[in-house]
Every structure is written in structure tokens, then in C-alpha cells.
Fold these 2 entries.
Entry 1:
Amino acid sequence: MSFYDISKRIMDIVISLCGIVFSAPLMLGASIWIKLVSPSGPVLADTPLRVGKDGKTFKFFKFRSMIPHAHEWLMSQPELLKKYQENNFKLDPDPRLIKGAKFIRKSSIDELPQFFNILRGEMSFVGPRAYYPFEVDKQLETHPDLKDLMQVVYSVKPGLTGLWQISGRSSLSFDARVKLDASYAKKRSLLYDLMIIFKTPLVVLTGKGAY
């Protein structure tokens, strides 16, 4: 391992442990709220696996902001599914959202459980977006020119934040997001990571690009 890889892993462990400790009350509050407004489902989202480093899939921890079995429900709605795929894998308005979901997402509270993914070594604090395998397969049918860039993206761990996060978040198109992620993977350094970390709080506080 390089000096960068070792330093980054140490930084990830320290940040994730601090993040878990300091956000514990917020995570507890979010858990209680989710069970109150949607008692029939789990606290964490039951989402499909995400793609990590070297193309390996992993269980992505995230607070549930949708109805139980939201993905399966969407798959059973042909018209909505088509709209979802044509609109960069988003629905607005989204009938799957539970009460308070927009606030949970805009404030990035739903992302807090990913500190555990970072601690486990499946993610890093800074890195590319963690993509769904089906999302990548579908988008590459339309953008085959991005195939090589996706391999560059897969060369590093996905992150809780990243260049995509401070540059538009969910408002970005798939190809714009992949180009940013690949750019990060090629240029990554501790200074670059720190720059992204320092810019992240402002983006979270303003809710810019959140969906």
C-alpha cells in the first residue's frame, strides 16, 4: 500500500468513529421518526447492493426514506419505472417517499449510517458515488463511451462525499457524475480529499442539489 492509501485509511477510521459518536443522537432521532411514520418497515433502507472498489458489491447502509419494498413496488409499476429510467433514475414527485423524507435527504441525515460502511472498509469518506449495478448497466447502454471511465471509477472506494457531492449532487446527469468521479479517481491526493471535506458542510447546509 502507498503512503496515500495508508494515510487515507487512518483518516477514514478516525472520521468514521468520530462521526458515529457525534451523530449518534441524530441517528437515534431519525430511527424513532422513521418507525413512527412508517412502522411496518425497517429503519435502514432495504436497497439493492451497490458497486464498490474493483466492481465488488456491498450492502450500503442508509436510513429508509421510502415505503417498505420501494424498489420492488417500482418494478411493478411499468409507467413509473419507464419515467424513472428516462429521468436519470429519479422521480419528482416520488410517490415512494415517507413523511419527512425530503428533509431527511436534503439534510443528508439518511447518509449517516454510511459511517459504518467506512469503518468496515467498504467505503471511504471521500470518493466516487456508490452506484447501483442495474443503474450502471442501463446507463451504459445509452452512454457506451463511459465504459472506460467507469473502470477508472471502480479503481477506488466509493465515498460518503466526493467531487460529485460538492458539484451538484443529484441534480447532475449520469454522464456528468461519472466524469467527475473519474476525474477524482485520477487526481486523488490527501490535499484534494481535504479540499472536498472542507467544502462538503456548506453543500449539506444549503441542501444544494439534494433530492
Entry 2:
Amino acid sequence: MQNKNIGFIGGGNMARSLIGGLIDTGHSIDTLYVAEPDPAKRQYFEQQVGIHATEDNSNIMSTCDIIVLAVKPQIIKDVLLPLQPLLQQYRPLILSIAAGVTEKDIDRWAGGSLPIVRAMPNTPALVGSGATGLYANSRVNEEQHDLAESLMRAVGLTVWLENEALLDPVTALSGSGPAYFMLFMEALEQAAIDQGLDSETAHLLVLETCLGAAKLAMESDEELIELRRRVTSPGGTTERALQVMEDGNIKGIIGKALKAASQRASELGRILGEDDG
């Protein structure tokens, strides 16, 4: 991927993260481009990052092998329609990180029959620990498939999905998932404070416990249920706490939450793809 030109439409946080990850993994700054209407953001990319920046989306069409759509889902249509002639002329790989916007709609707004990859990253990508689900349409060739994967792996792990519809549960799990863990961490922190710990101590212990549990699970070959059993001594403190959670149907609540998020992702996709009038 080192000799491929990559153009970003949109210079927000996720684009910054991806560009930073690409540079950190050895991608040349001379092959990176960004189109961004905000002059302050363009100045940042040009002066602090050292990559090409332009106000006009069309300026990067003839140069780039990959076009990354890093704008809000609500404006994808308005971004793509004016670019149709250039997209059809140069036929780059389109990689969309806009949640909910389907491959069918992206292709329609881009003029049709283009290679498209949809990616669902999450916010830990901002610190290089992202988890991204990927879906490619049938026009993405093997090289483009590898390019898309390499690009997203610059900020974390990637998984490929054979069915685009599976991006909805991926959105519910890893896309929205960081917020679930933040809520649980908030609750743990407050409960610890209520038990008498000072806020700084409670905060540090919650963060390190969360990090440690994730690291332990990542580095172990055992199932999560077995790792949980290891710290649950019969008649001990952990067992008592877990019983309270089970009595509150924590698994049922989590299941309902993921289902609701997945359904909402599907709904948003339909709304965003509706034809005018």
C-alpha cells in the first residue's frame, strides 16, 4: 500500500486518526491527501502533518487510488452527487466510514458500478486500539480488498463480513460498545465513591481494572466464562456481586440494548437512503 495515493474527504477526528496511523506505519506523507472546507483544519494538515490539503473535493479525484468518505452520514449524498463524473472517469476504490449509509446508496450517488468498501470503526481508533468491521461489494478486487484492510488496520484490528446486513450488529457491538463500557465504568466509580473511596482512587482503580480485564482476555486462549469463573470463588465476594447482577437480569438488559442499537442502525440506513420526494 506504500505507493498508493489515499484521499480523504473530510478532515475530522477519524480522518486524523487514520492519517496518523498510516504515517506511523510507514506510509509516505507525499501520498496522502485531504479535502476539507474548514481552513483551520486544512492548515493543521498542511503545516503540522505535512500532507496535501485542498478545499475542493474534486481536486483529489484524479490523484488518488482510494477515496475515503470521512464525512457525516447525512451529507454523503451531497458530497457524492457533484463528483459523479470524476468518480466514473477515474473509478477509485471508495471506502466509506459513514455509519448507516448502505453500499447500494453510495454506489447510486457515485454513478454506479464502483468498487466500494464500507467500514464501521469505533472511537478507540483515535488511540490506535480500534475495532473495525468491513464489507466489500463484488467489484472490489483482491488488491483493493488488501488495501482497505491495511488502511483500517493502521488504527486497530479488522474483521471482514460477508453480509452487509451484519454491519448493523457490528455497529451495535463495537461501534456503540465503548459507550456501554464507559457507562459501566461510571457506575463502578460512583459505587466505589459511595463506599468511601476518594474520587481519584476510585477512578484510577476502575480504569486499570477495565484495562487489565481486557488485556487478560486478549492474551488468554480460554473462553470468557472460564476466565470469569477463575476469579469467582465459591462463597466469596465476587460470587455475591455477580449474583446481584444476575438477579437484575444484566444479560437480558445487554441483549435488549444491542438489539435496539442494531435495529436503529438499520433504520438510519433506510432513512439516509430515501429518495427525495
